[in-house]
């Protein structure tokens, strides 16, 4: 799941803890939420995107919505393949999440809930909800941290993504701790299999391939260790270190971001910690700094945070730049402007994030960061992207 990064109590500021959790002698993890591993790769990615979409209103809103076509594209579905989306949503509603943790008073709490309490598709919109109890757990920053969607998109194996999620939440402690093999099989979704009851098969077909993909694809490195009773393997744990090649992709560790001048300027404008880190992660420090300067140059701005949000979303400064535009490109840009304007803020954020994840060339990525949907270097890709969302929009262009 998107926010499975349980932290050691020692890592959490004291002012975030209450009750018995404030005692320095408490050395255990605040929480551990296990989700049945019997999810397909697409279902697992779907659950992460839905959680990310709902996160800011998990407690305040009982129902969450996202554009179905955007959702399909973010997960890697064909945007018109509603049958696959329906099957995946059904799978999430049938999947059990189980937690066993300390509450605010230091008492042990066990609970179980379906991953989604319901989901429905209507009018091109996916509507869904979490049970109140699970929503509370998912919203707790001491329990979960965001998993970068750009990282999860690279995974090709459901077992590898499951291993990553279950290891990533322990990245600050450096180890998962010992898991009985039965629990590990359940997390990987292979419990009940006679074949994988044999450790040799489990290691060859599940553990080794999953470890290889996590280390190659993600922002962490994992190394398995086993414990035996006699000759039989009984437990497994994973040592975890940051991947120095990909650690920059981790959006969740805000320590470095909070030391930047741009973050300080955002805080000075009244931008929240979470939103400031999100903007810096999505747009880059230089781009955000440019938009701060742009907003600062405007007269009579009564709501600088709202204006800055719009400037980042719509790339106001870029619209003022003088860029030679061919007549054909001008028509494409006009269509794109209309399509973007018709989207909700949530949809716009999702569209931008998805398109950014698809740009491989550094120069093209930098141009999109500067100019958004008006990017000259990405005109062809931008047209193709929106044509997949709205096939009839570019007829005659």
UniProtKB/TrEMBL annotation:
InterPro entries xref list: Initiator_Rep_WH1, WH-like_DNA-bd_sf, WH_DNA-bd_sf
Superkingdom of the source species: Bacteria
The protein here is known as RepB family plasmid replication initiator protein
Which Gene Ontology BP annotations are present? Answer: DNA replication initiation
Domain Initiator Rep protein WH1 residue range list: 26-167
Please give one Gene Ontology molecular function term for this protein.
DNA-directed DNA polymerase activity
Give the family per the record.
Belongs to the initiator RepB protein family.
Tell me which species this is from.
Sulfitobacter sediminilitoris
């Amino acid at each position: 799941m998107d926010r499975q990064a349980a932290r050691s109590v020692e890592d959490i500021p004291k002012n975030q803890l209450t009750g018995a959790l404030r005692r320095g002698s408490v050395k255990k993890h605040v929480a551990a939420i296990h989700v049945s591993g019997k999810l397909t790769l697409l279902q697992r990615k779907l659950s992460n995107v839905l959680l990310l979409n709902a996160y800011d209103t998990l407690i305040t809103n009982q129902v969450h919505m996202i554009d179905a076509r955007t959702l399909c594209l973010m997960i890697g579905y064909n945007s018109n393949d509603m049958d696959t989306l329906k099957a995946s949503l059904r799978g999430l509603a049938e999947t059990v999440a189980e937690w066993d943790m300390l509450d605010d008073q230091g008492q042990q709490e066990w609970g179980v809930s379906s991953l989604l309490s319901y989901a429905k598709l209507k009018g091109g919109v996916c509507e869904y909800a979490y049970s109140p109890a699970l929503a509370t757990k998912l919203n707790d920053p001491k329990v979960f941290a965001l998993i970068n969607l750009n990282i999860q998109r690279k995974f090709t194996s459901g077992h590898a993504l499951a291993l990553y999620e279950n290891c990533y939440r322990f990245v600050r402690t450096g180890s998962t701790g010992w898991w009985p093999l039965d629990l590990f099989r359940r997390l990987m979704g292979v419990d009940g299999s006679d074949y994988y009851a044999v450790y040799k098969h489990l290691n060859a077909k599940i553990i080794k391939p999953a470890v290889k993909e996590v280390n190659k694809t993600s922002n962490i490195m994992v190394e398995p260790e086993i414990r035996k009773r006699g000759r039989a393997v009984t437990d497994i744990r994973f040592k975890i270190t940051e991947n120095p090649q990909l650690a920059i992709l981790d959006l969740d560790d805000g320590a470095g971001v909070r030391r930047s001048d741009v973050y300080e300027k955002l805080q000075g404008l009244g931008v929240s910690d979470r939103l400031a880190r999100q903007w810096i992660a999505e747009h880059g420090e230089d781009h955000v700094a440019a938009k701060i300067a742009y907003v600062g140059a405007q007269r009579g701005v009564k709501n600088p945070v709202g204006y800055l949000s719009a400037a980042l979303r719509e790339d106001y400064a870029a619209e003022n730049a003088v860029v030679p535009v061919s007549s054909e490109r001008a028509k494409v840009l006009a269509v794109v402007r209309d399509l973007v304007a018709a989207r909700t803020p949530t949809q716009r954020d999702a569209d931008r994030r998805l398109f950014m994840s698809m740009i491989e060339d550094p120069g093209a990525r930098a141009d999109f960061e500067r100019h958004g949907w008006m990017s000259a270097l990405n005109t062809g890709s931008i047209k193709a992207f929106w044509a997949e969302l709205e096939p009839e929009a570019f007829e005659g262009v």
